[in-house]
Amino acid sequence: MVDEDVDGRRIMDERARLLARPLVLAHETRADAVELACFSVGGEDLAIETRFVIKVAPLPPLEPIPWSPPLYLGVVNYQGVVLPVVALRRMLATAPKESTPEKMLVLGTGLPELAIAVDAAEGVVLASADAIAAATALPAGDPLVRGILGGRRVVLRGDALLSDSRLFSAGDSHATDDR
């Protein structure tokens, strides 16, 4: 019994060590390397270029936005700026399952523009642009998706997310609130 416990612990320690290593692909060069912030939403592994991520922070209590579209979870006071918090899962064509976000990624190009609610922030990886494969398995034409990394992680286009028309359209002033 003791030998099984020792062997089991050794195996688990080895797995943890291997999983803790950053994902750096052998064929990448510094010239074409892309730095990606990795996170998860509703069981989906996602990433976005770090140049769009201002901060990863715990998700504070949200203030509701009356009559807002369902993709808005609410707003937070982020360093004196009222920042909308978006349910990314409601914007993606793949529609990850419902979850309880614990963190937020504050996004912007210089200044904070919006936050996305995420289940977990998993760190930063370097990948070559060539390692981000075309997203052929996803619904065609999803403007938010840049590609797939490692066969499972969906890489988002930060510029497309920050300029997505669904974030800025007036829409129905009495949108259904299914939060």
How many structural domains are formed by the residues?
1
What fraction of residues sit in β-strands?
A: 35-45%
- Summarize the main sheet: 6 strands, mixed
Classify the secondary structure makeup into a structural class: mainly beta
Q: Could you tell me the radius of gyration in angstroms?
A: 19 Å
Q: Low-confidence spans: pLDDT under 50, at least 5 residues?
A: 24-29, 171-179
CATH architecture: Beta Barrel
Shape: globular
Topology as a string of helices (H) and strands (E)? HEEEEEEEEEEEH
Q: Kindly state the mean pLDDT as a whole number? A: 80
Query: Any idea of the CATH topology?
Result: OB fold (Dihydrolipoamide Acetyltransferase, E2P)
Q: If you had to describe this structure to a student in words, what would you say it looks like?
A:
- The chain is mainly β and 179 residues long.
- The protein has a single domain (24-167), classed as OB fold (Dihydrolipoamide Acetyltransferase, E2P) (Beta Barrel).
- The chain has 2 helices and 11 strands, in the order H-E-E-E-E-E-E-E-E-E-E-E-H.
- The chain has a 6-stranded mixed sheet with strand order 8-1-2-11-10-9. A 5-stranded mixed sheet has the order 3-6-7-5-4, with no helix packed on it.
- The protein starts with a helix and ends in a 17-residue tail after the last helix.
- Residues 24-29 and 171-179 have low confidence and may be disordered.
